[in-house]
Design a protein that fits this description.
With about 475 residues, the protein is mostly helical. The chain has 19 helices and six strands.
Amino acid sequence: MAKDYKALASAVIEAVGGKENIASVTHCVTRLRFVLKDEGKASDATVKQIQHVIDVVHGNGQYQVVIGTDVERAYDAAVEILGTDLARGEVPADDGEKRSIFSKFSETISGIFFPFMGAFIAVGMLKAVVVLLQNFIPGFSATGTYTVLYAAADAFMRFLPFALAVSAADKFKTNKYVALAVAFPLLYPSIVTAYEGGAALDFLGIPVTLVSYASAIIPPIIMTWMLAKLEKFLKAHLNATIFSLFGYMLCILILVPVELIAVGPIFQIAGTVVADAILAVYNVAPVLAGMIFAGVWPILIIFGAHAAFTPIVLNNMATLGYDWLSPLSWGCNFAMAGACFGVFLKTRNAKLKEIAGPNWITALLAGVTEPAIYGVNLKYKKPFVIACIASAFASIPIALAGLQRTAFTGVNLITLPALYFFPGGWSAPICAAIGFLGAAIGTYIWGFNDSMIEDPALLEQEI
């Protein structure tokens, strides 16, 4: 039976206090993320009882309703009910002082990066396919087909500054097309040619430091934020007619030189320094650092705080040409699948088997762990703890191999062959095996028994 997403969205909106209690709504890969005016008006128990809702999470100043991989349809239905004015993920001004700096930062990052995650995941999967074809078909990389497919898989990352400008414009409430006009010069052919040729460039006698902006992360976000502030200032000091004629032209005229002379070079160079510094610290004790990072990664996921690492990962890609941080967490996907599989094997409760079965398969084959985490592992606590431990140990081969992620492929059983071809990729299958088998065996032996079941809806379902 097909899901009624409008009914789902309507029930969730009512349970969180109604439209009048919602300041904004956005979504990530599996969650509806609400900013509520008063979280006290929301009923967790009521939300959790709604059909197709997996769980509720409080984190980063957001009320997060876990739906699953079809969350975008639920989000579209919610926006249809609430209106587009609430669909930007903004935090109400009077709430700003109540939120920690980390919460504000994480919420902003989520609001900017998650809207284009669908495209991000799609091109990553396509790149995995291209990598496999390149390694298994001799001469494939010399064909026109390869050129077309590689362009389709790689272009989004190369021109990522433009996607960031559009998404940041939505977040900061400024004109997205003007934001693009400010961002476009970063990758304009003559600028790129001057950089690649080592040519000297100046603006009104002021030297322009040329750097590579392919896949740049921070400059387009900073420039779009500056555009929002400048636009607001000009609108406050110019009458509407003057602004309509000259306002956005002044924005571009002011911001593009600032972007190429100061903001762009400073943040690109700073990004390189930060990436090198973090890598240097990691290299002192890679195994220990990797285990700590991988062990706490599932905890970051349940609070939605893992989004805060997205800029670091993308900055690594832009400055180093690869990312070493995110592979350390790869074991988490397999560990969560394994723990859920352990529950599936151990339980004799028919209803729990019905829940755990699809959830461990979704985590293993698609790399989407939230249904396994909230539907099973976290609910019974020990499976989640065992999965965290398995995730930590699964990072050891990744750290020892120094695996370098050169493309944003998904992390699951299907893409595992593509991960093998990354530098140090021999460690990926070992990581997956440790994560899945360690969590599955640990959960089956120590982590679960049917006496843990307390949900009345699951009782009296033993087979």
